[in-house]
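Handoff note, outgoing to incoming analyst
You'll be picking up this chain. Sequence as last confirmed:
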Amino acid sequence: MPDDLVRYTSADEDSARWAGFPFRPGDIVISTRSKSGTTWVQMICALLVFRTPDLPTPLAELSPWLDWSIRPRQEVYAHLAAQTHRRFIKSHTPLDGIPADPRVTYIVVGRHPLDMAVSLYHQGDNLDRQRMRQLLGQPEPDEEPHTRPDLHEWLTAWIHADPDPRRSLDSLPGVMMHLGDAWTRRDQPNVVLVHYADLIADLDGEMRRLAGRLGMSVPEATWPSLVEAATFERMRAQAERSVPDSSGVLIDPTAFFRRGTSGAGAEVLSPGELEAYADRAGTLAQPELAAWLHR
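Most recent structure output, in case you need it:
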């Protein structure tokens, strides 16, 4: 691992897989936290690259997840090397764990952390844990799995938990570290920040903004069909081709697209708990980042 890169690991991810990756001019890296709009921006990039809603293969094949340990690293490298279109690569690694290359555009997506956490909680019920253990070569647990707490209990514990963010990237400290690093780079010409709420509010406008930052041109007559193909409803209706699940770890691909709106976190917590969250978040993020993230 190069000295200038931070290494991030989890049970099924390892950012060290980025070390030595042979970038090409024009490559796009989509760096997000889980359940923050990764698949949405992957789809937007696919539509901009191919300029048609009729994509040639499922999204997970067009845009593989490089730091996911379930698929062998060299297999992913070979898959990307064989691609002839402009490449757009999924990652859950913060930018300080990915090699910086001026020829590459890095897109970082932010979402209100409470909404991201609620979505992550529900995603946990849709993962085939046995299948994941098989793919990772992990043994079956000796004990029966513990009963999960309900959403309210889990979310309040998530707010106050203080794990090592390099080992727990989907914790609140991990989310803020990921976005905080990107925030310090936001004025770099090849770093683009996207907010999940902006995709909801103005999908057409955000797609055009991304096209501009990526130097892509799309015929005006083509735009309506591309925007329609990037809507939550269309992606959910075509879940078998949209979900990031080439290895079959999701129980129900359609359930991956659960809601696609903002505000789920605020629905779970009391006013006092929301205030406690705001206080906690304020200790982990710069005021400008916090204002952008929570607007």
